[in-house]
Amino acid sequence: MTDLKKRSMFKVAALTALVTGLAACSKTEPPPPPAPAPAPVASAPAPKPEPLKIAFAYVGPVGDGGWTFAHDNGRKAIEKEFGDKVVTSFVEKVPESADAERVIRDMVGQGNKLIFGTTFGYMEPMLKVAADSKGVKFEHATGYKTAENLRTYDSRTYEGAYMAGVIAGKMTKNGTLGVVGSVPIPEVVRNINSFTLGAQSVNPKVKTKVVWVNEWFNLSKETEAATALINGGADVLFQNTDSSAVLQTAEKMGKRAFGWDSDMTSYGPKAHLGSAIINWTPYYVKATRDALEGKWTTGQVWWGVKEGAIDMVSIAADVPDDTKKRIDEIKAGLKDGTFQIWKGPIMDNTGKELIAKDAVADDKFLGGLSVYVKGVEGKVPGAKK
User: Which residues pair with 178 in a beta bridge?
Assistant: First the structure.
């Protein structure tokens, strides 16, 4: 091979290499794979609403077996119904005095937004605190004064008293009934009268004796009053006080009596004729739901058998069947409005007409009762506490 040919071959090879290199250099690099999309950021859960703080002021101890025990059962029912949406607390044995205002103000200071005061004597203290605490809702049991942030509520305890009277009128052997009264306010006078009217509906000749203790809860005074009534001839006792002392006294002295506000059967099983109970649960659940849902309004509420707030329970086995049947009829009539307890003619114990024949007392009349009906001995004390 001549040098010329060799040189030609080298040129061809060089050109080929150059073209190949340029071609290789002209190729584009593949684009990098796309970066993965960022994972969606989970939105933070909405903050859980703070629970509604609810406080109860009780006039007696929660273990009284009657009035305060019934209210505390209602408080527990709120906790069961609403769970962690509410936090409840209570202060027991709060006197109907300046101490009540101090306790209720302290409840406001602790952040409670719904406060229940469970006795008549808290009315004025609650009005004062409500005026200074517009962001708090107040509920006052058995009172009659309201404010824009204070509502009153009550139960028609006179319906239970009337049913107890029907049983007492049937079971008394000598026609003399006894009542231990707490404080002479219309609520208690109304119950004494209703008890007597119930007894007279089955035994027109019965008479009722009353001993006042001027306190809601005082075991020794209630015992003394019950003893005095029995010694004075009463063989069936009724009460408008908060403890089980009256029933226990009847048990010890061989007489009959009733439970009041709560089922008191266990305190005197031999003496017990039945218990006129208050079920606060329906109202307390309603009031709490109103507050939670922003539907709470002021006003006055008065519930009875119709709303499930009042009942006669645990009637003794020796009460005649026709009397038990009559109690069932009364309950049914109170529920559907066909039976009226306070229907005339009704006379007071001086012979004055209180309600004319066929007339029916309205709530205003019932809320202001200050005299006894025919058959109740004595006069209503003038002092109110």
Answer: 209, 237
